[in-house]
């Protein structure tokens, strides 16, 4: 379902090779769903099952090899630009592809003796650790496992036009669901009902999946930006926050919208306006060469001081729901054209003797001309129905 | 969103402790979404983001501790029966919860010096391997990491009444989507459209998520039981296969249905009848004490010999889409009351000089009285519209 050209996969492979050469690695093995999609152009739907691992080997001095369960061969052969496949009859718990992968790795041209795996920050290895250990010990006499996460990060952090288009398609589907929200969010509707209806709207508008819908409501404000729905029903005077992650071709949209059911307290209107203005401040300074930490400072500088206790206020999006960089005071990543990041300021506000929370999120592409919003900008004033 | 009582979580913890004692383990650490749900009763929606790991520590001689990012505290405190929390301000890539987890582990009563982690078959560790290695090395002088997968397997393989009810709810939502299929599957409808509409139907019927929809169609038969949709549009004479994984409260349904658009070749009708009869043969012999391999033999014995090249023909379901046991000739697991498994025979058949594929899947609970179907049995004859 991806719309990425073979030439782009070949270019990714060559870029990976350049980084492998610089780091003295003979091959990379990727197993995570996002990395299978990124390098091979195919990840099986069956990835949701932990029974079978899927390996793609990217050698410095040989063509890529997919080492996969036999049952996935036909689909991957059709979808992937990779031409060499090695398969085993899975499930076979006593040797779930491990010896086959070792054979493929040991047959590769050897220059440095090191193989890269997804070991480092923000990576999850798509195989049991016991199998990974057995692979390393079996392979150990000749090969050493090293971290390929920096290579994955370096490649994936900047998006191509085709990737931006897929993120844009996911954003479009999510936007259609947000557009339907005022018609769905009536007094008496439960968060759970909204949660299901929101997903259905996004799917029917073209999302492949809607794996994330945070939804929270409450009188004059809500209390969480990340929780799932509760049985609570909407009432007059509520503020509703919905945040979604929807995908097209594996690429994620991540943004949220707020909606109030009149009458709305001034504190909620003010909170929304402050978040919107904080984003304006960030949009005004965001360009290549600025650091992620600088963007965080721009957001934080426009918010009440107490709000800046919130850790990060945005992050990269792409083949995972969140990925580098983090819009965080400690992240010194220098923004470059092609990065796609969210701006996600949040704050607490006082109301009726309690605290309420609000977040506002947009997605943008960093270009040489500055930020290009991929989301349709939320209105400056909190929408009320 | 789970409907599991606190007493059941406490009982799971006590059962885990008994197995930990037998295996001489001082504590287990779980990180996978399914295991967080199983032991703590809460996994964050944000689990889709790989930025932040989530740890639950289950000690032999102390109360459980959730070691989680601060932002997840309020939600987990509300949803989980666990009462002790340790948090860190994530993201913090230089120390993403590792030192905090080590502190918690080192403070536990120590009897054996071993800590169990999700290392073995069908497990995925929910943290970067580099962090796991750093944890083990930091903890190494005092503690040794051992495999807790056998404990997880032993507990999760038999389902409680509450778990069966959640699986049943997921099945009900998926069944509603299958019931809508004849109205959706018209000549000219694309697989992609059906794929989205099917998900939407299941959601609106009560599924929390529909993470898996395999869909394939073709003249007189289809060619894959696991692929995603293609742009292909349905035509007269097609056979359509749809297989889904839908969840409620984290628990999965997994079954499929076949549908033909008249006229249907006799070979497709025969294939469906054979699969249905193979399931009848398995249902007739399936009871506690029978091995998973015996069920496979019952299915295989009722199918043309060539079909038995298919590896497994069913598997457990629960908090993951597939889990032990495998209905596979090599799986000697003895079935017990409380196990929930699928019966998923498949076969190839010849048509117009080519090969077609068909699969038929039902979900059942093993009881002392024999199998109890959780799915509404597919009709014996291939449905035609």
Largest interface (CB within 8 Å) is between: A-B, 69 and 70 residues
Instruction: Estimate what percentage of residues of chain A fall within beta strands.
Output: 15-25%
H and E string of chain A: HEHEEHEHEHEHHHEEEHHEEEEEEE
Classify the oligomer.
Answer: homodimer
Strand element count of chain A: 16
What spatial form of chain A do the alpha-carbon principal axes imply? elongated
Termini distance of chain A? 37 Å
List the uncertain runs of chain A.
none
**Averaged pLDDT of chain A, please?**
95
Q: How much helix, percentage-wise, in residues of chain A? A: 25-40%
Q: Helical region count of chain A? A: 10
Secondary structural class of chain A: alpha+beta
SSE diagram, text form:
2 copies of one chain form a homodimer.
Chain A: H1 6-22, E1 27-30, H2 33-40, E2 55-59, E3 65-69, H3 73-79, E4 84-88, H4 98-106, E5 114-117, H5 129-139, E6 144-147, H6 149-156, H7 161-184, H8 191-204, E7 209-219, E8 238-248, E9 251-260, H9 266-285, H10 292-301, E10 315-316, E11 323-326, E12 340-343, E13 346-351, E14 354-359, E15 362-367, E16 370-373
Parallel strand pairs in A: 1-5, 3-4, 5-6
Antiparallel strand pairs in A: 1-2, 2-3, 7-8, 8-9, 10-11, 12-15, 13-14, 15-16
Helix pairs in contact in A: 4-5, 7-8, 9-10
List keywords for this structure.
alpha+beta, 6-stranded mixed beta sheet, 10 helices, 24% strand, 3-stranded antiparallel beta sheet, homodimer, 16 strands
